[in-house]
Design goal:
- The chain is α+β, with helices and mostly antiparallel strands.
- The chain has 3 domains: 317 residues, no CATH class; 110 residues, no CATH class; 57 residues, Arc Repressor Mutant, subunit A.
- The protein contains 16 helices and 15 strands.
- The chain has an 8-stranded mixed β-sheet with strand order 5-6-9-1-10-11-12-13.
- Strand 11, helix 4 and strand 12 form a beta-alpha-beta unit.
- The two termini are 54 Å apart.
- The structure holds adenosine-5'-diphosphate (ADP) and magnesium ion.
- The site of magnesium ion has 2 residues, from loops.
């Protein structure tokens, strides 16, 4: 079983105001479902295709076209729900949300307002130093994405690209459990990590595969505890929703500036109007976009072209049986199995590919040493070349052998770095390379003794100085290492130098 014992961080208190204020944040994350085809058509979801090349008649809103649900999208939503330890609703349904959008030709978005496919779940957001926030998930529903209007290609015309129109999105709605801008960013990253582990969303925020609407309010100390006790939103402040954020840095900036805006209004005796706002990173301000719309403004009604969605528990169980080991479990296991620090385990489990690579290196070897080599040497070297672990020139088997050679005492850490560089640039079997190139560490005391004697005999002045100042023994160690081409075991050299100089 997992042993996840954490303390909740204190809520962020905003400085510089007349009173103390606490932040309350809830996120609605839109994650593009990783599937080949769209939610209700067979058109491709491939990013970066020629504009309007991935558009079926149903996506273009042609009269008489009927949507057909894509089973793969439903399976991905269920998988995501299971990964977030959420309730899976065997009965859900699609509703029409009516509005005019030039890049959604149907004239409505098919979504799930009343009966979402996934119910309550949770995400553990670690904040370092043994602190973590457990953020409750309220629901996940499936809905269609809109296309893209392009206004900057022509001074007199706008263009529309419908490739994204009808692509499946999961809207993942959190409870207002997030209490700081840093927690909001960490929540998005944790969610992204879980979705990537599950393979249900590629998490590419730059391409817009993950976007968040950020709801922000402020309250006075004590208010939140009353909300927790009663679950009555009336205990909290009025929120504003900042739309469509796809960078964790901007999310943090937007929350900070929006909280300060609300506090200034409240301390001036004003009230907050619930509304939708946009963040402008250049001016570092949020601006009103529209007043908050209510469900009735959209004239929601069950989509008459689609049957209610009924799935079977056995099918859900089949999906559950294919879930991978998820980040929290993997991290806890790495700490227990390989005696890793919390930090190293986090770094190694950030991406599945990193974790799999590390496990192969560490298999049957010193886990801590393996972690050091993967994190410091390999990741460092790959970063220098702007390469990914998936195209690392050094295989886990090769790096494992290098780690094994160090543990056996065959090579020193310094020689190991040279060996790593050789393997990285020209390949080869590390064990054979060590033999061929005579890189083996000399632990034979006789050979090292000869080298130490020679250095002492050649440097009588240094010997005198070292006798007066034992710190200079290091100079002798350095000379012996040089003379032996770095192959002498440094511990043995050190011991002999100290002995021979009588320090
Ligand atoms: P809507 O459907 O109108 O957007 P919801 O009740 O679904 O409203 O809430 C949307 C988001 O707002 C959720 O993520 C929720 O956690 C968050 N939220 C609700 N009340 C507050 C509040 N007082 N402060 C911050 N976030 C809030
Ligand atoms: Mg909303």
């Amino acid at each position: 079983m997992l042993d996840l014992t954490y303390n909740s961080p204190k809520p962020k208190v905003i400085a510089g105001a007349k009173h103390d204020w606490e932040l309350v944040i809830g996120l609605e994350v839109h994650a593009q479902v990783a599937t080949k085809a769209k939610l209700f058509s067979g058109a491709s979801t491939l990013f970066g295709s020629e504009p309007n090349s991935n558009v079926a008649f149903v996506d273009a809103g042609m009269p008489g076209m009927l949507p057909v649900i894509n089973e793969a999208c439903v399976a991905q939503a269920v998988r995501t729900g299971l990964g977030l330890k959420a309730q899976i609703n065997l009965n859900s349904a699609f509703d029409r949300k009516n509005y005019f959008y030039p890049d959604l030709p149907q004239g409505y978005q098919i979504s799930q307002l009343y009966h979402p496919i996934v119910g309550e779940g949770e995400v553990l957001v670690e904040m370092g130093n043994g602190m973590a926030r457990l953020v409750r998930i309220e629901r996940i529903h499936l809905e269609q994405d809109a296309g893209k209007s392009i206004h900057d290609m022509d001074p007199n015309m706008s263009f529309v690209d419908l490739n994204r129109t009808g692509v499946a999105l999961m809207e993942i709605v959190s409870r207002p459990d997030i209490r700081g801008a840093d927690e909001a960013a960490a929540f998005v990253l944790k969610l992204r990590q879980i979705l990537r582990y599950l393979g249900t969303c590629d998490g590419n925020m730059q391409n817009g595969s993950m976007r968040a609407d950020v709801n922000v309010s402020v309250c006075r100390p004590g208010d939140y505890e009353r909300y927790q006790a009663t679950q009555d939103f009336g205990e909290l402040g009025t929120r504003c929703e900042i739309k469509n954020m796809n960078s964790t840095r901007f999310i943090q900036m937007a929350i900070d500036v929006e909280a300060r805006r609300q506090i200034a209004i409240l301390e001036d005796g004003g009230t907050i109007t619930q509304e939708t706002r946009l963040f402008d990173p250049d001016k570092n301000e949020t601006r009103s976009m529209r007043s908050k719309e209510e469900a009735h403004d959209y004239r929601y009604f069950p989509d008459p072209d689609l049957l209610p969605l009924e799935i079977e528990q056995a099918w859900v169980d089949d999906i559950a049986a294919t879930l991978p080991e998820l980040p929290d479990a993997k991290k806890a296991r790495f700490i227990a199995e390989f005696s890793l620090s919390d930090y190293d385990a986090s770094v190694l489990t950030a991406e599945v590919a990193n974790a799999a690579y590390f496990e192969q290196v560490a298999n049957g070897r010193d886990g801590k040493l393996a972690a050091n080599w993967v994190i410091n040497e390999l990741f460092g070297r790959l970063k220098k070349d702007d390469r990914d672990i998936t195209d690392s020139p050094v295989t886990p088997d090769q790096l494992g052998k290098i780690v094994g050679l160090i543990t056996k005492g065959d090579i020193s850490g310094k020689i190991a770095k040279d060996l790593f560089e050789i393997v990285y640039t020209t390949g080869g079997d590390p064990e054979a390379l060590v033999e061929e190139r005579g890189m083996k560490q000399v632990t034979d005391t006789g050979a090292i003794e000869t080298a130490v004697d020679a250095v002492i005999a050649d440097n009588p002045d240094q010997v005198e100085k070292a006798k007066a100042n034992p710190k200079l023994a290091g100079w002798f160690v350095g000379q012996v290492m040089k003379a032996t081409g770095g192959k002498a075991n440094p511990a043995v050299v050190n011991k002999l130098v100290v002995e021979k100089l009588g320090l």
